[in-house]
Amino acid sequence: MENYIGKRLGRYEIVEQLGEGGMATVYKAFDARLNRFVAVKVILPIQQDRAQFLARFEREARSLAQLSHPNIVKVLDYGEEQGTTYLVMEYLPGGTLKDKLGQPMEWQQAARLLVPIARALEYAHQRNLVHRDVKPANILLTESAQPMLTDFGIAKLLTGDETQLTRTGVGIGTPAYMAPEQGRGEVDHRSDIYSLGIVFYEMITGCQPYRADTPMAVIIKHMNEPLPPPRKFVTELPEVVERVLYKALAKQPEERFQDMGAFADALEVLALGSGEKKLKDLSVPAVKSRKKVLYIVLAVILGLLLLCCVLPWLLYVLDVCLPAGPWPSFPWCNVHIPENHNRLICPPPGPWIQPPWCLGG
């Protein structure tokens, strides 16, 4: 991609690159007219192949500019310069939430930090806007450490169709934070709930729940693998926090919080430290873990052993025989067994070898 540092896009002088993603590159720029720094998101050329792109870009950019919430980064301007399309947004020098991750964060602090983001998403969902790419890198921090959500609706703005595939080969979004249904191209507001739940999980445990060698493999894990228990990484984590995570990260959308407001309410309760009482009735989908599956398999094996070994032995000890009929009889029936034959420790007479302590060896 062309290097824009030192160049101008409209009235914005590009100063330095702040980051690069699969669909755009973000620069710090100076707005000489208003004497302030801004963030300029330059759309990668690959996204501009479609004939309708510019019309859709302008339409969606205007829609994003209408969002007005204290925790959503404001879209200030947009433009097109010699084939380069760009968005202009507020510049926040505090970095991103991603910069703060890497080790477990105290769960109440994590909840407090995400409440404003959840409320921002609730505000947008009420206006039928879905983010589609909630992740730590899209949560910016102000100089006073207030969280701000950015890139709202950018994925749809750039593709127009949420079922389209990105360069990574999966549905629009970031695989580590994508809801199972999002990997199939099915997106609604509950997909954002799942993504924010993954962010909450990572903040508390210090790690993402699913990792793999390829983006598609990560998506498949989101779809099929049980959520690794958060208390596996943070043993002292209260059960109510784990319940909120299981609720937000249910595989089926209908089993999650059904709106972002409900998730935000739960986060507020956790932030205040009063979750045990207020969230005790929170319904959580059944969790199937590998350990539980192993226990079930072991139980089945034990049951078969009892059926095949212990039950015949018990019938033999009690000298139980079937009535005459076309079916085969038990090997100890219709066979002379000496009186000194101990049924508890000796098998019935037959072609097999008797232990030395049976029938005198």
Essential attributes:
alpha+beta; six-stranded antiparallel beta sheet; 9 helices; Phosphorylase Kinase, domain 1; 361 residues
What do these coordinates show?
By secondary structure, the protein is an alpha+beta fold. The protein folds into two domains: 8-90, Phosphorylase Kinase, domain 1; 97-285, Transferase(Phosphotransferase) domain 1 (Transferase(Phosphotransferase), domain 1, Orthogonal Bundle). 33% of the residues lie in helices and 13% in strands. It is built from nine helices and eight strands. The chain has helices spanning 53-65, 107-125, 154-159, 189-205, 215-224, 239-248, 260-271, 275-278, 290-317; strands at 8-9, 12-20, 24-31, 36-43, 75-81, 84-90, 139-141, 147-149. It has a six-stranded antiparallel beta sheet with strand order 1-2-3-4-6-5, covered by helices on one side. A two-stranded antiparallel sheet has the order 7-8. The N and C termini lie far apart (89 Å).
Going by CATH, the homologous superfamily of the largest domain would be Transferase(Phosphotransferase) domain 1
- Order the strands across the largest sheet as they lie in space: 1-2-3-4-6-5
**Unreliable stretches, pLDDT < 50, 5 or more residues?**
161-171
The ordered H/E elements are EEEEHEEHEEHHHHHHH
User: Given the helix and strand composition, which structural class is it?
Assistant: alpha+beta
Shape: elongated
The profile of the biggest β sheet is: 6 strands, antiparallel
Assembly state here? single chain
Do you know the CATH architecture of the largest domain? Orthogonal Bundle
